[in-house]
Design goal:
34% of the residues lie in helices and 16% in strands. The protein is built from seven helices and six strands. The protein has a six-stranded mixed beta sheet. Strand 5 and strand 6 form a beta hairpin.
């Protein structure tokens, strides 16, 4: 069973290093083009199942990239940054220096102010991973950068803090293969996108 994790295309809020999680930003013109560029790859993959985050940027990417029916999975939402939504790291560090310190230290009880706690996000990713595994056949999952990182850690049996090792660009695909009778997977390809074709 192969799991193809697809990050959505560029949105209207892209750029400037701003944190965008629960904010429901749509794709911009470039993001729509990126999504359409995924069509040949997804047609070749011919997945048996297509799962998708409920947020507009993922649904739009999925609808432009393939023609199959989508199953919306609420647990595939991006993390909710709360009061940090739409801010740059510099703005966040200036306004919440102690909280940023706790975040960088990997504080187990950390929660984004007015947003989601990291342990709650981790629990949600566990539910999402279980839903994906339950498909039992090749599946494409349209989701978000943070979700792709978290799911890769889950499937590859890596600690959650290893998520920082993965740079997930817009409209890219990461593929893992679940081994028979095993609790973990192998990474078959990572970061495939329009920009990496032919490289």
């Amino acid at each position: 069973m192969r799991i193809h994790l697809v990050r959505h295309g560029i949105t209207t809020l892209h750029g400037g290093g701003r944190y965008v999680g629960s904010t429901d930003a749509p794709l911009n013109a470039e993001g729509r083009h990126q999504a359409e560029s995924l069509r040949p790859l997804l047609a070749h993959l011919a997945p048996k199942h297509v799962l998708c985050s409920p947020l507009a940027r993922c649904r739009q990417t999925a609808e432009l990239a393939q023609e199959g029916d989508l199953k919306i999975i609420q647990d595939l939402r991006e993390v909710d940054f709360g009061e940090w939504e739409g801010l740059t790291f510099a703005e966040i560090a200036d306004g919440w220096p102690r909280l940023v310190e706790k975040w960088n230290e990997g504080d187990e009880g950390f929660a984004f102010p007015g947003g989601e706690a990291l342990d709650a996000f981790g629990e949600r990713m566990g539910h999402a991973a279980a839903r994906i595994r339950a498909c039992g056949q090749d599946v494409v999952v349209f989701c978000h950068g943070g979700v792709v990182r978290a799911l890769l850690c889950r499937f590859l049996n890596l600690p959650a803090e290893a998520h920082i090792a993965f740079s997930v660009v817009p409209a890219s695909v990461a593929t893992v293969r679940l081994l028979p009778n095993a609790e973990y997977a192998v990474l078959e390809c990572f970061g495939i996108s329009e920009d990496t074709k032919g490289k």
